[in-house]
Batch of 4 targets.
Target 1
Amino acid sequence: MNLQNNYEDRLNRVIAYIYDHLDDEIDLQKLADIACMSPYHWHRVYHAVRGETITSTVKRLRLHRSAGYLAQTQIPIEEVAQRSGYPNLQSFTRIFKSVYGLPPAEYRKNGGHKRFSNAMPERMHIMYDVEFRTLPAMTAATIKHTGSYMEVGKAFDRLFGWLASQNLMNDMTRTIGIYYDDPDSVPEADLQSRAGAVLSSSPELQDPIEYTGIEGGKYAVLQHKGPYAEMKSAYQWFYGTWLPQSGREAADAPCFEEYLNNPRDTAPQDLVTEIHMPLK
């Protein structure tokens, strides 16, 4: 193993630990031990390779999960704050609002996820345009993820960390996620998905990264702007309202998402995601 890959493996261990311990206080010395690096230097390596500080990573992941709790569950806000590692509701409210634009209670009541459930049926076609596209078959470098779709970022971090270490990232790289299961009918722990990237070349990949094909053909595409936590509501409208009224039928292939900007440098309300539904 070359030194570059060795550093990537070390940082992957740190990312995996953070995802598995978001409820805990993050100990920087513990992370240095996991990375097997000097506490004087490991954080500089992480910042340089990942493009954000470890503090920014933890804050982003905790708030992302908190937005999911607020949009998709009825967990009391005080408990959401505690699970997110904030000492009190006031500090959680202040930080959540600074990132998501609304305080937690208002976000739960009137956040973007409510657009799909509150819209009048006669305005659906005006508010949520669906575009038809014919796409070529594609091949993506992917990593398999099992579990909550809200935690697929762990696989994306590992995938893009390796791609960056191999200088395989460029302006032509497309970021996609493939989602195989309905989260309302499959237990969360069993949900299957893949974090992926469509590359401009076809390099030899390193386990657990592998190539996955995406079928070409006709797709219905819904563009969603806003936090990833609101995607579930978009899917419910897309499949529950638009598809039955469209006169079309979904093909026997998984949907996929394409992410048009990066959550590391884009405010949650400005994230743009295209949901691709395959059609017969």
Target 2
Amino acid sequence: MSLTKKIKDYYKKQNTLLFTTPSHAQGRFVVPQAEKILGSTYFKADFSEIEGFDNLRAPQSTIKSVLNRISSIYDSKASFMLINGSTSGILAAMLTVLQDNDRVLVARNCHISVYNGLVLTGAIPVWFSPEYDNEWGIYKGVTRQDIEDYLNKNKDIKALIITSPTYEGIFSDIYEISKICKEHDVILIVDEAHGALLNFGKFKSKPAILQGADLSIQSLHKTAGAVNPAALLHISKSSSILPESVQNSLNLINTTSPSYPLMADIEATVEYLHSDKGIKHIAKLIEDINAFIKALPKEIKAYPYDSDPTKILLKLDGCNANDIADILNRKYRIEEEYSTQNAMLFITGIGTDKNMLKQLLCALKKIMKTKSDRIFCSDDIKIHNLKTDIKYPPRIARSKPKKLIKVNQAAGQICGECIMKYPPGIPLLLPGEVISKEHIPYIEKEAILII
């Protein structure tokens, strides 16, 4: 039975007194300001594992049925609803396959949650950097060649973790990477958080688990219309990983009080994406984005290579994109996902309509007509070129005593905290890494923890 329907039927009847958590008692009392924001229906659907409802930690009935349905839609061995975002899926994937002192090959442009997984598992990272696109200021996709030498020279690597598509929508060659991983008996984990629509539209890349990855994690809230932090974790049918092992890992990190409204939203979102209406919706979104790209003035260039079209990466001829983004925000009330000196990123999704794209296009055209020489850019920041030396692996670094010093005194010291810009959440320095004098200009704070 559908969890969404069961919840709806239950709160309509309202014939059971709940002396359970949560203490708002299905909305009998709601803080007025909270009700104004969330509405009364939310609280009617918000309860714990009451009689007749299933348990996310050990699904046996309704939730199990929903998970089986999701798995069939995604063609996975098993799928899991994540009520703590893709972060929890990445942590669970790593906890399932990695143990203390296992060596894991990790792309340096990974999300910070991968570092957290290294701390929890005690695994030792072998970092590598994908090729960097200097013109656009982004990392390119990972290729078989990027990792083949590492796997040939490091026979003890147990797993590989990569991000595809990246924050900017760049795909990696998962099919070829999965083949080399299988040859070396290496487990492939793909952070596919930004690829939640791949199963339902015509994209340049197929979903990771359908290309040979063992595990993939997708954020339904990023592009697919679900609320924060709805996500999914999938096991490939070709993987030897047991669903029970993944469930045990999720149980280590998940709350014991999962949100039933959030689980219902995950179910409803997946069903919509899988429907004829949802598939047409995604096709229309891509059509509207393509029309937007074609209508851009000649001074604005969209990322020209095969990528996820829902990530609109724009480069403005002779302009500092940070300054253009500031004008968009202040004058036109339009906020981009992030900007650098090189480019601006606009993330679209199910909620992006033709009118939104039209407003953005009009604003950009007006800005480009009136831009002054003051906007022209300086040299791009090349943070990706900075090399890091590892003194302590993540778990050991996490447990070391720390002290706070001024950043201008930190060169040569061992970093004691994560230094990163968010978005996109890619670390500049991690605990246990040596701080060089080249790092100092990019640390945007006055003091830093060192070991």
Target 3
Amino acid sequence: MKPETICIQGGYQPKNGEPRILPIVQSTTFKYDSSVEMGKLFDLEEAGYFYTRLQNPTNDWVAAKIAQLEGGVAAMLTSSGQAANFYSLFNICSAGDHIVASAAIYGGTFNLLGVTMKKMGIDVTFVDPDDDAKTLDAAFRENTRAMFAETISNPSMVVLDIEKFASVAHRHGVPLIVDNTFATPIHCRPFEFGADIVTHSTTKYMDGHAATVGGAIVDSGNFDWTRYPDKFPGLCTPDDSYHGVTYTERFGKAAYITKATAQIMRDLGSIQSPQNAFLLNLGLETLALRMEKHCSNAMQVAAFLEKDPRVSWVSYPGLPGDKYHALAEKYMPNGTCGVISFGIKGGREAATRFMDSLKLAAIVTHVADARTCVLHPASTTHRQLTDEQLQACKTPADLVRLSVGIEDAEDIIADLDQALAQA
């Protein structure tokens, strides 16, 4: 099925006489007739449900739809996109290990890798995504266990050369993990270009209405963990917490997601609620339609901003003159996303006056939903970063992040025009 059809028909498949719409299984627990039956679930000998902290039918149906959209073998939902990124890495990394990550990523993720995970004994080297393969190679160590990046970086709008990153990661025997939140599988399917694991903040375009916080991890099933048993003992050696099960032997291509669910989610518990998963599914049903409108509007807005003398620079990969336009054409020929980054002449002060003058667009700590919204990352989402770190992650202090909604494009432009007049 094409992505537009999967958005509607993927995941939940009702049988004869069952509800046509995805049911909300709002239960913490599941009943069994004998302890033996339940014991088999705890030993991972049989599939099933026993506690929603690990798995829930509503969540699994929605995760299956997202896996279908990405072309993966399995997926799991988390309580947030940040949890998804953390779990995706912590599933294969432990104290003493090392990660290579693009510096052009969301500020919260930059902090997760550069501060919080370092406290756990997991080191990170940040690299410029525009570096050549030889320079990227130099960042790897014997203890490197993963490479991480974003398909379109938030908020710097850097388009990742997925094939370059995948080739480098595989040359060093580690998987490439890609956050595909901005592009969504409607416009980019990283597995087709060599990525191994995809994460999402489903809070953004997938939900699309700023109604639910959530995340997802999708496994392609393509990375051969058994080729590097010394690097990934958690997957390739017996797990004492599950009576010695070896995930790669028992679950094959589903080993990575099974371990993330059975071990990491069991112990850390950042599960998405079934109610939120239900709302996420409603958003997914219109994802393809909304992404088309977001991109159409964003192209018109970006063209307006590019020509406006009050604007110092514009970063939007859809623009023919953009630095990343060629990569966008290669990886996302049908459109990128609805987010635009730009600078206003006059710097921080002018940016503040501009945002305070907006009427239609709202100042919110959010991005990528139906409503147009705006943010100044240096004073909000990225305020924990120094000026040097802001430059390193390609988020200069004057950057304004505009998330173009699905309102009428002329109304959005009129609002920007009157606000720029007061900046």
Target 4
Amino acid sequence: MLFMIIIKKDIKTPKYKQIINSIEGAIASGDLKKGDQIPSINAIKDKHKLSRDTVLMAFNELKNRGIIQSIVGKGYYVSSENINITQKIFLLFDELNSFKEDLYNSFLESLGDTIQVDIFFHHFNKNLFSKLITDNVGDYNYYVIMPANLKNTNDDIKNLPIDKVCILDQTNESLSQYSAVYQNFEKDIYRNLVKALLLIKKYEKLVLVFNDKQPQGMLSGFNMFIDNYSISGEVINSLNDRFLSEGEIYIVPDDKNLLRIIKKIKDTPLELAKDIGIISYNDTLLKEIVEGGITTISTDFNMMGKRLAKIILDKEQSKIENPNNLIIRNSL
């Protein structure tokens, strides 16, 4: 071993920080390289007459930052030579699409260069969701989790430190103890449909395309709107066998179904915005252009990324409802 842990008792720097500084210094000087083993917790504890907790605190910080890793039965090894990383964040998305990519990029830009973000995807699979969290408990400084509409997610999230978790996009009562940057889907769809009420009343029926990946609040808000304003409404789970009729407006939460309905319209004599209407979810640059512009209900994903970063950087414990707006374009 070419380096030594140096502990000085007559300085104010905490002893666990001195351990960290010794290991970082050895990496910076080249005495320690990626893959090298470092002294064990017991070896450092006994040599410097420290408590096990002091050494473990230092190792856990280095591990959370991704600088060292533990291998069961063998010990601790250098896993990264980038000692400039001050925090390592676990980011669990449901899936990646264009607007979530905007959120992700905004989040990274707002955090700065000294924070590493590792992104994972559960693809609406509860078993995968559980495994990803279980496999990474204790390996990160902070956990950002997008539970989507999966059931009983708190059974897994409760294994993480409550002050190191932020829930993203969708939340629920079982997750109320955690910080969150979220959308209020029930309120947002209701409020934005009320804004478009005069346009909606020019049509005969409002149709929501809703599947099991969509937030339940969206369905609740839709039903509340059609009940309160006596609008003829229908909920369908697929456009595959749907025959489009004049006088219908379709609310389409996902982009695959948006493309399907545009293609279906082109195969009929129906004219968009005159005979049939579309309201899409989650605005993108493409939706400003397609068919002269698609009306959207959308949150500000760039703002969501910035607010998420602020919670982590400022160590806030807060719940932030991200704003959501209606953008009326040619499709309505």
